[in-house]
Design goal:
Layout lengths: L8 E8 L2 E8 L11 H10 L4 H10 L4 H13 L6
Helix pairs in contact: 2-3
């Protein structure tokens, strides 16, 4: 294993059964919660309001069958989640 140009990725030869392939390993990558602003980012992400597109997608993903999905798609197309 060696590092390329000071990059944090290393290469490792992994032998899985009969196949050998190169696997990239990331090292020295700081964990988000371990950085100075990690707790603030986590708190801000928890308080974020979902966008209109995210609310529409969550509504469409909650459908039970094809007919319910088509009904919900018509409601979204009519602007059920858009501000008037």
């Amino acid at each position: 294993m060696h590092s390329l140009h000071g990059c944090t990725r290393n290469r490792a030869l992994v032998i899985n059964g009969r196949r050998a392939y190169i696997h990239l390993i990331e090292r020295n990558k700081p964990d988000e919660e371990m950085t100075m602003f990690g707790p603030f980012k986590k708190f801000a992400r928890a308080l974020r309001v979902p966008s209109v597109e995210e609310r529409e997608m969550a509504y469409l993903n909650g459908s039970n069958d094809r007919f319910d999905l088509e009904y919900r798609q018509r409601q979204v197309d009519r602007g059920a989640f858009r501000n008037r």
